[in-house]
Design goal:
- This protein is an alpha/beta fold.
- It has helices at residues 12-19, 21-27, 44-59, 76-85, 96-104, 144-154, 174-187, 196-206, 217-220, 222-237, 239-246, 255-268, and strands at 66-70, 88-93, 113-116, 129-135, 155-168, 209-215, 271-279.
- Strands 3-2-1-4-5-7-6 form a 7-stranded mixed sheet.
- Helix 10 (222-237) crosses helix 11 (239-246).
- The longest helix has 16 residues, at 44-59.
- It is globular.
- The two termini are 30 Å apart.
Length: 282
């Protein structure tokens, strides 16, 4: 497990997304996760929806299923799963700005249902979901064993779980650890970036049977070139973005450099993007 040299302070994950709310929405859009380029010809909007659809498929979502979106951001993936899969979705985020935005989209008949709460203390009923997925959220959770234990608890026996995660290579060179992965954890507010072995062990330790692990690093890594170009464009053209990144009072302005580190980490192979498909036995 790659960890920042100093433990992260309590509350910094929510603070990161709260302070960068405007930049995230304007650069990434509503989904705030990687896009999936199967052909390379997809638009960014098509690519993020392709990823959401792929993940829901890995979780085994079917029409009428009750599904949990763990770390749902602005709720765009939850809305996509409702529309495209005919599911009922409960979406959980820890960030007030994201929750407020999701609620403002006007869920129809409470679907999706948006909850502002910590996944590690979610208070959701036992065995209440047919499927669950986490898209790039477990990286932000310090107690990953508890995160997966909670997923196991809320899923019915036989329920499927899909987890997309930024994953450290099993063996990284010292300079990659020092100049790429450790700073990415510190600046991106990741308490720890696990390896594939770590995640397999965590899922098994929670009681899951790991059915498949899919490496889609090459199909998603183009996200960061797009985001870097768009952020640099906004620095040139948007005074508010420029003022934020130049202000010493901006606690998370370092994330511009982090985006470049992530771009580099994918290309050196120090970082991978994996989708884990697991199931609660029974």
């Amino acid at each position: 497990m790659i960890r920042p040299r100093r433990p992260l302070a309590v509350g910094v994950v929510a603070d990161h997304y709260q302070e960068l709310d405007r930049l995230y929405r304007e650069v990434w859009g509503e989904h705030v996760h990687h896009g999936l380029w199967r052909t390379g010809r997809e638009s960014p909007g098509e690519a993020v929806e392709l990823l959401a659809g792929f993940v829901a498929g890995q979780a085994g979502v079917r029409p009428g299923d009750h599904v949990c979106d763990v770390g749902s951001g602005y709720g765009a993936s939850a809305r996509y799963v409702v529309k495209q899969f005919g599911a009922r979705v409960t979406a959980v985020t820890i960030v007030p700005a994201q929750h407020a935005y999701a609620e403002a989209t006007g869920p129809v008949n409470g679907n999706p249902r948006y909850l502002l709460r910590d996944w590690l203390d979610n208070s959701l009923p036992d065995t209440s979901f047919d499927a669950a997925y986490a898209i790039e959220s477990t990286e932000h959770m310090d107690d990953k064993a508890r995160a997966f234990a909670e997923a196991f608890r809320v899923l019915r026996p036989g329920g499927g779980l899909a987890v997309c995660a930024w994953i450290a290579a099993e063996a990284v060179r010292p300079w990659e650890r020092r100049h790429l992965l450790e700073p990415i954890c510190r600046e991106g507010r990741l308490p720890g970036m696990g390896t594939e072995t770590d995640y397999r062990a965590l899922l098994a330790g929670a009681g899951f049977a790991v059915e498949a692990v899919t490496d889609i690093s090459r199909e998603v890594r183009g996200t960061w070139g797009i985001c870097l170009r768009e952020t640099l464009r906004r620095i040139r053209t948007d005074p508010a973005t420029r003022a934020f990144l130049l202000s010493a009072a901006s606690r998370n302005r370092i994330f511009l450099l982090t985006m470049a580190r992530i771009w580099a980490a994918y290309r050196t192979g120090a970082m991978r993007y994996l989708v884990f498909r697991a199931r609660r036995p029974g």
